Amino acid sequence: MLLASGCSFGSKTTYSVNQYTLEYPSPVFKENAPIKELIKVERFSVANAFDTSAIVYRDGPNLRNIDPYNRWRTKPGDTVTDFLVRDLRHSGLFQAVFSYNQNEETRYRLEGQVNEFLESKENDGFKAILSVDVTFLDLSKKEVTERIVFQRSYGYTEPLGRETYGNLAQAMSNAMEKFSRQVMMDLHQAMSASRK
Predict the structure, then answer these.
(1) pLDDT tens string 26-59
(2) Which of 81, 168, 69 lies closest to 120, judged by CA?
(3) Mean per-residue pLDDT for 73-84?
(4) Average pLDDT of the residues of the chain
(5) Phi and psi (nearest 5°) for 172?
């Protein structure tokens, strides 16, 4: 009994950590003809301030904090990459889509960086903020400068309503769905133009 009770001496109190992820249906584009091309999505990088699975929130100018008991299930770069690959595959717009951990060679490559992935306290309420830079490359071009099909910045701000982590996850899901839909439309348009 002494040994059994001694095991708990000096032990720290454990706390449960909630882990959140995004949930939304993949956009589908039935009105657009699919393009018979392959795309590879590289793993998106992340601005250092958001390269963490901790939920980052803005409390005021120059003030960023995290909550140790509520986290994202994965880091923002992996989250954005994985959902974008999923959505591109389900869109019906392209012949095939490969992720960064697959060895297939493709003509087109999508790269990006997540610049913001946070909750922000604004004058009109709490918002989820997602901003991403994207570079789309055509690797069939010999000159490096000619490979860039486009380079664009995307930014979305979604209201939370009441401030809860569940509402934050839903608002960020809405932002990601809008980002994903716009990227897919831009890719389809750019690839259609390059094939003419």
Answers:
(1) 998 888 888 999 999 999 999 999 999 999 999 8
(2) 168
(3) 97
(4) 90
(5) -70, -35
Strands 108-122 and 125-138: antiparallel
Q: Rounded to the nearest 5°, which phi and psi values hold at 166?
A: -65, -40
CB-based contact 103:152 (threshold 8 Å): no
E strands present in the chain: 18-20, 35-41, 45-46, 54-60, 63-72, 94-99, 108-122, 125-138, 148-159
Q: Can you give the pLDDT at residue 149?
A: 94
How much is the pTM?
0.88
Provide the 3-class DSSP secondary structure of residue 172.
Answer: helix
Looking at the DSSP assignment, which residues form a beta bridge with residue 98?
40
Which of 99, 98, 89 has the alpha carbon at shortest distance from 29? 89
**What is the Cα 58 distance to its own chain's centre?**
19
Distances (CA, A) of 139 to 49, 89, 118: 31, 20, 33
Q: What is the CA radius of gyration of the chain?
A: 21
CB 30 within 8 A of CB 92: yes
Quick one: CA dihedral 80, 85, 87, 88, positive or negative? positive
Residue 75 to residue 148: CA distance in whole angstroms:
27
Output the DSSP codes for 85-121: HHHHHHSSSEEEEEETTS----SEEEEEEEEEEEEEE
Domains and CATH numbers, the chain: 36-194 (3.40.50.10610)
Residue 91: count other Cβ atoms within 10 Å of its Cβ: 22
Distance (Å, rounded) from C-alpha 194 to C-alpha 20?
39
